[in-house]
Please model this.
Amino acid sequence: MSVPGDLGAIPTRADVRDKIVALIGSDQSREEIANWAALWVRQEDPQIEDACVWEALKRLTGADLRSSRTAYLHSDADFVAWLKDLGDS
Model:
C-alpha cells in the first residue's frame, strides 16, 4: 500500500529498523533520515496503522537536531533505545 505523493510503500517496522541501523552505522546522514521520516509525519493521512512505526517516525524526524553547533542532541545510545522500543520486525 502507498500514499499519495509518490512516497512509495508505507514504512514497516523493518524499514524503520533499517533507518535506525543506518543511523548507528553512519550509513546515511542524520539529515537524510530525518527528512525521510518527516515526509511521512507531515502527510495529512499517512495511513500508518502500526503505532510503533508511527512513534519511531516521529522520533526519527529529530535525528538531526543539534544541542549546539558541534553536537547532536541524540547519540547512538538513543538510537539503540529507539531500536529496542520498535520491537521485533
